[in-house]
Amino acid sequence: MDMSDPLKILEEEHRVIEKAIGVLKRMVETMKLGVNPAVDDLRNLVDFLRTFADRCHHGKEEDVLFHVLEERGVPRSGGPIEVMLQEHEQGRSLVKGMLQAIEAIEKGDKHGSIVFSEKALSYAELLENHISKEDNVLYPIGRNVLSDEDMERLLDDFEKIEEEKVGPGVHEKYHRIVEELSLKYR
Ligand SMILES: [Fe+2]
Ligand SMILES: [Fe+2]
């Protein structure tokens, strides 16, 4: 990975998130065949979505990238940044819904897996479109308007987020979780 290009770092994180979404969709296929995946696997995947995809990746976008883009003239409201923020919120509420569904599954509630499947498929569709908008629209805007100094600042601030919000070694742990689950649900 090119660690000197902050937008490249975000794009690489998108590839990991897409891999997790692939696992999520295959978990739903398994459920539709009447077999519930192990609750630990469901929990680990949703934990990935909450920590890696939301706290870490969306954190870098919301707390750093969007602010710098705004400083360079990309408006916060009425444009792509506003849409991205709304979609992050929608993702958060779907993740909450998945967690509640997992609790229902654990209690033996038959509707749990139906609710999980609905929330999971909505999340998958939302995030796939979201990622494609960022890769193809927002980040290219960033490459046009951000200076070399801005890029340096993004790199520094991303590192701070990794240390303060996520903690050392946590990124690697989540990469491993997705790798393991993608071998199990293929
Ligand atoms: Fe985003
Ligand atoms: Fe993103």
What overall geometry do the principal axes of the alpha carbons give?
A: elongated
Number of helices: 6
- Uncertain stretches: none
Assembly status: single chain
Tally of individual domains = 1
Helix and strand pattern: HHHHHH
How many strands in all?
A: 0
Class by helix and strand content? Answer: mainly alpha
CATH class: Mainly Alpha
CATH-assigned fold name? Four Helix Bundle (Hemerythrin (Met), subunit A)
Radius of gyration: 17 Å
Helix content: over 70%
**What's the story with the biggest beta sheet?**
none
What is the average per-residue confidence, as pLDDT, rounded to a whole number? 95
**Which hetero ligands occur in this complex?**
fe (ii) ion
CATH superfamily: nmb1532 protein domain like
Distance between the termini: 25 Å
Proportion of residues in β-strands = under 5%
